[in-house]
Amino acid sequence: MAKLNLILLAAVVICALATVASNHRARKLFIEFENEQKRMRDLEVEWSQLQLEQSTWANHSRVEKIARDKLTMHPPVAGHIVSVGQP
Prior knowledge:
Elements: H1 2-57, H2 60-69
């Protein structure tokens, strides 16, 4: 009878340790999950900011102004425009 009690006690201790380990692992995974969700939200904010910045830098009027002022470019006059058609 004492031998059976020791076996049952060992089984209970092993189950208790397994439960504690499982709960600890679940908490660690949940914390990691929360951190990754925060990282995802931060990346979404950064993506939105980059899209806004790209639209600002690629604005047609800004590109035209830089071409005119810094590169001294100008639109061609009507007589210098040649249209090439498909055969």
